Amino acid sequence: MRPPVLVAATLTALAAAVTALAAAGPARATATDPPAPQGVFLTVSGDQGAWMRGELLRCEPEAWGHHPHASEACGALDRAHGNLDALVADLEMCTQVYAPVTVSASGTYRGKQITWQKTFANACTMEASTGYVFRF
User: For the whole prediction, is pTM greater than 0.85?
Assistant: First the structure.
């Protein structure tokens, strides 16, 4: 068993450390910190999250990054003014097979915050509805 004086001293030191950390406040970005990455993180997942893939789409100042169709995807988002519900659908014949696919988008597009998610009946209807945006 520890002596009560040692326990009290330890608790006092711990309280002082917590108070000092709380007084310091949250960490803030400084002029030397790199800017936060801009872009929209896109994900596609299968039924009940059985599989998932994602890609960061960057459109500023121009399309760049690892998205295989970045220019086309940024162009589609430009025409929709960043509103993924307003993407122009392709005229494509899709089967009636039910194999749900969920897509999501979150991040910053041309200074506008985006948070969006939608489930489609299958990958064909997803691609027809979203065009190049989720083709990765």
Answer: no
